[in-house]
Amino acid sequence: MSSSNPFSLAGKVALVTGANTGLGQGIAIALAQAGADVVAVGRSSATDTEREVKALGRKFHSIYADLERSHEAERVVAQAIEATGQVDILVNNAGIIRRNDALVFTEADWDAALDVNLKTPFFLAQAVAQSMVKTGRGGKVINIVSMLSFQGGIRTASYTASKSGLAGITRLLANEWASRGINVNAIAPGYFETNNTTALRADEQRNRDILGRIPAGRWGRPSDLGGAAVFLSSAASDYVHGTVIPVDGGWLAR
Ligand code: NAP
């Protein structure tokens, strides 16, 4: 391990997609707290995140990209490396959910979630890993999956397919890249208070049902993901490959 503190990210650069809000913002701030500089990739301005990261004394760079377009992956990673010299950590966080009955689910809603949640994360991981292999530095890839990587869900056909697929791809990439010094793992958040779950929290019955099943007795907050993200980004997890860590207030244990 390179540092006396195995959880230190000093000198590392983390590329985080969708870092302007929600879980991506919580992860970016946690990584900066542990010492990493941050490259935020997305389609919305990340000024709040930038302020917080810089307040921690870390560098911040942002790159615009619509992540529904997987061919953007190569440009994004090239631009990140040009700006910062390296990418040590990739967090595939950006994601969307489309809700409708399976009987009438549209192809457009299928394609959108599969592209943002599965296809682009794969090609971002590929582009980052190519540079990690080329430089021989190795690195960390963290995919943000879901409870619906384990469970079926309801009215979320494309989301369930994409997040189950991303958990599978996490294991595949770990098998291929572990020997190259690249750790590929995933975090499965439970139910968190973000834009992604506004509709669920606004539905009184669903809100009550969900809360009633969470042993911790509350929705997760973006900062709750920080510990797992830092662990999987750091030397402390150097022998951890292809796993999915649930951060769910105990949801899966019920
Ligand atoms: P969120 O608040 O809706 O944030 C989603 C992020 O993805 C935003 O930054 C969003 O950008 C970005 N994004 C979506 N489509 C994009 C596109 N085409 N191009 C670029 N960026 C795009 O949701 P969240 O809850 O923080 O979700 C973060 C991740 O955690 C997602 O992968 C989600 O599936 C997963 N997750 C969330 C929960 C939960 O309970 N909240 C549970 C399990 C898994 P804009 O702000 O521009 O839309």
Automatic annotation (TrEMBL):
Which EC class is the enzyme in? oxidoreductase
Q: Which reaction does it catalyse?
A: 2-dehydro-3-deoxy-D-gluconate + NAD(+) = 3-deoxy-D-glycero-2,5-hexodiulosonate + NADH + H(+)
Keyword line: NAD, Oxidoreductase
What the entry lists under InterPro entries is as follows: 2-deoxy-D-gluc_3_DH, NAD(P)-bd_dom_sf, Sc_DH/Rdtase_CS, SDR_fam
Q: What EC number(s) would the UniProt record show?
A: 1.1.1.127
| A molecular function (GO) term | NAD binding
Q: Provide the family line.
A: Belongs to the short-chain dehydrogenases/reductases (SDR) family.
**Which NCBIfam families does the protein's record reference?**
kduD
Q: What is this protein called?
A: 2-dehydro-3-deoxy-D-gluconate 5-dehydrogenase
> Which species is this record about?
Povalibacter uvarum
